[in-house]
Sequence to fold (54 residues):
Amino acid sequence: MTTVTATAMATYDPRWHRIIGEALRIRVRGPARYRNPWRRRADLVGFVDEALRH
Fold:
């Protein structure tokens, strides 16, 4: 886990931890946390909305 990931996990509600972890997963090319790309997209859009409001 990177410092940025740890900070995001500590800052945002646990409901966003999965999408935060997915962003790290993409960076380090680990196993996917989402089976459905539409679910990942929905979570990403929701997280960006939350981040902009935060």
The longest helix spans residues 37-53. The mean pLDDT is 94. Residues 4 and 19 are 14 Å apart (CA to CA).
